[in-house]
Amino acid sequence: MFWDCHMHCNFSGDSETPAIDMINAAKAKGLRGITFTDHLDIDYPPQFGFFDLDLENYYPKQHALALQESTDDFTILTGLEMGIQSHVADKCYEAAKQYDYDFIIGSTHVVDHLDPYYDVFWETDDVSKLLTRYYQVILENITAYTDFDALGHLDYIFRYKDEIKNTDTYLPYRDIVDAILEKIIKMDKALEINTGGYRKGIDNPNPSASIIKRYHELGGKLITLGADAHNTADIASDFEKLPSLLKECGFTEYAVYKNRKPTLYPLG
Question: What pLDDT shows up at residue 52?
């Protein structure tokens, strides 16, 4: 049985789903456990929305609900998806230490004050240069801020422009992607396998199989699984595709972080 270790409820600025609905849906789908990882993006560009998380309400309420709704057969954990920007790394460190999170995903959602989700980001004549810059920013971010457990949805930027959705996310950017992978391996961080890519019409999770395989070749050992669900329908979506793909990339186990420490489970 799988754990889904990346999901959002109505504490996140882009979800309206109550946490209890996510819990009940996950139980109905036969999962072994879930981890809530609601968004905290400090200094997120205000023209694109609101991703500042009410930490003083989020952790106490989610943690209490987790204790109330967990059973012998189903565990609920409380985590955080930290949107990293290097210029607010000090504030990210402060936020991470404010509560006893089980799991922190380190993600890059903003590149030079723009969010790739929006068309304005793509107003360029050189998309390749823009994609290279995205990877460069990730490396800058995880150099400035290191208090995370898994690197979130590497290469997810390819979800947001039709012309590049199923192009190679690794070889054209090999040097910088290798530098990112080598850095998280040296820091003993996990690589998140995020199935949200499938829902966006990509033939791979994020990151793609080529990057997952390269991570393993370089010595990477830890992966986590998450569907990036913002509603009940997307919990554990496309997880059935992962065992064969991940085994082809060299992995037989995935990690679930509890109290910021990984426990390994078989892929099945």
Answer: 86
Residue 146, φ and ψ in degrees, nearest 5: -120, 0
pLDDT block averages, 10 residues each, the chain of length 268: 95 93 97 97 90 92 95 97 98 97 98 94 93 98 98 97 94 98 98 97 96 98 98 98 98 98 95
Task: Report the length, in residues, of the chain.
Answer: 268
Q: What pLDDT is attached to residue 236?
A: 98
Cβ neighbours for 216, distance < 8 A, ≥ 6 positions apart: 249, 250, 251
Predicted confidence at residue 13, as pLDDT, reads 86
CA atoms within 13 A on the CB side of 229: 28
Spatial CA neighbour of 200 closest among 107, 81, 117: 117
Give the SS3 label for residue 245: helix
Rg of the chain (C-alpha set)? 17
The pLDDT of residue 1 is 80
Tokens matching residue 30: 């036969």
Q: Is the distance from CB of 109 to CB of 41 less than 8 angstroms?
A: yes
What is the 3-state composition of the chain as percent helix, strand, coil, each rounded to the nearest 5? 40, 20, 40
DSSP state of 229: B
| Domains of the chain listed by start with CATH number | 3-103+113-240+247-266 (3.20.20.140)
Q: Residue 215 contacts by C-beta under 8 Å, 6 or more apart in sequence? A: 181, 185, 191, 207, 223, 249
Strand partners, 40: 82
DSSP string, 151-185: E--TTGGGGG-GGGTTS-SSGGGHHHHHHHHHHHH
